[in-house]
Model the fold of this input.
Amino acid sequence: MDIENILKEVLKNIKPSKEEMERLQKMANTIIKEIWNIVKENNYPVLDVLLVGSSARNTNLKDDYDIDIFILFDKKVSEDELEEIGIMIGVTTIKRLNGSYEINYASHPYVKGKVDRYDVDIVPCYKINFGEKIISAVDRTPLHHKFLKDRLNEKLCDEVRLLKAFLKSLGLYGSDVKTKGFSGYLCELLILHYKSFINLLKDVQNWKLKKIIILEDIFKLYKNIDTKNLKKFDDPLVVYDPVDLNRNVASPLSKENFCKFIFYSQRFLKNPSIEFFKNYKEKINKILEDREHGYRLILKIPRENVVDDIIYPQMEKLQKSINKIITKNEFIILESKCFADDNYCYLYWEFLVYKLPKVALREGPEIFKKERVEKFLKKYDKVFIKDCKLFAYIERKYCHIIDLFKDIINGNIQNISIPKYVNPKKGEIKELSNYG
Done:
């Protein structure tokens, strides 16, 4: 199949049916109507209630049952009052519709509910206009919706779906701290800029680190804009938010995932296949699991009762700190990653070798550099000369990687940055295997 026919086939499988969209819209209308009833009953200072997100913009994928509803308040309302009333409205709405709910936190609390098959977020925010300063991060969202709703047509919406499905199959869709990939909003902006999924992939072939994208519409929104004066970002991909030019929409995207997107875009264009849209990440993982492995171990730490947005950055911080100690002791890391379930945090490593000789070498200066030679000799006594350089034999402290990790969990190694909720001293070491 050629690319055009592949994408047509993919679209058939990922695009919601007319009936599915009608049912979703009906549920959204029911929720919005109930919110307005509660607002009027209590005379709450609400200016508007909006359905936002992919389902509101017709860019959602098949079997996506997310409904995101924003309650817009006047800026005169205090933040405490906004939070209190917003939670009250959200909880009461979900209860009246016989759903279940919990209170979640972004820049401020919001209600996350389940009504029938639909996952419902009810979020309070302030109503602001383009160019106005936000009070909370979520204040941008209604403006994101307006910006895109005015510009996305049916064809572009389908192109967004293709991009989302491609990224999802690679495990790159989502801007949460676990995924570090592409948000739905970023996907929509990229398609708006490139006009099609294929145009985007073709341009991606030439992307380098710190790629910058400025949408043409930004120049219409902000008159006399000077791109030289835009805020600088040190991210792999920079896509200026049309709603807030001081924000990079692509900031959650990791360097590794940026490179994966480039690589698999190249692979797809070179050998187009519908397989790229069918759980491709699982196929990649299977290839990795089927290979011969080095020495692998996991540091398993009881999980504190905190959300992913807190626990994942702290796991990564701890792992980076431990990686420095590992590298300093000359063990070679093939792979390191972290993940968590409801009960534990897991820090995983794979090593080229797990055991090193008792003797190690330290390279010194050339013998012609007298002052440095004298300093080296004061530090080391067992020396020899090779290629006009001094080398010293030293006795290695850690010959086995397990001994190093035992000292880590026993608190015997300094200079490890220990986060508040992920303490290695509470951990246990688990060996997955030696080799193979």
In short: The first strand starts at residue 46 and ends at 52.
